[in-house]
Amino acid sequence: MSPTLYLTSEFQLRDPMSDFAARYAESPLHRIGFDTDAEGIEALVAAYPDRVFRARRIVENGRFKWQGLLLRFADDVFVRVTGNGADWVEIYAPSAERAERLHAALQPALNAKPRSDRPFF
Question: Which of 54, 58, 108, 57 is nearest to 79 (CA)?
Fold first, then answer.
């Protein structure tokens, strides 16, 4: 018989990205979230290719576009990236200090990305 684990939480994780949330079922969880854009997602992948734990891309107009990305920095420290227009980065760590350290460590890669001159309203 295989055990089944059911989680009810505020996590809105689906598909292959959802199982990492089980690590925090009975442990502390600190989250830091912030906006990014498609160039920021590409910059994170370029800066941390060895940290890519899960990746999901779609093809749109013949080009790859990020749908979801999960970077693993330790057994209990992850960065989850949502692309495809939502363009959101969220850090998951067992302590505020570790989350803040990782946030600081990600900034050089994010700040070095080429700036997009997309129009905004």
Answer: 54
Q: At what angle do helices 96-111 and 38-47 cross, to 10 degrees?
A: 110
**62-98: pLDDT as tens digits:** 999 999 999 999 999 999 999 888 899 999 999 999 9
Tell whether the torsion through CA atoms of 95, 101, 104 and 108 is positive or negative: negative
Distance CA 103, CA 121 (A): 28
**5, containing H or E segment:** none
pLDDT given at position 111: 84
Q: What is the pLDDT of residues 18-52, one digit of tens each?
A: 667 777 778 899 999 999 998 999 999 999 999 99
What does the alpha-carbon distance between residue 120 and residue 75 come to, in Å, rounded to a whole number? 39
CB atoms within 10 A of CB 73: 19
CA distances from 41 to 23, 33, 93 (A): 24, 14, 20
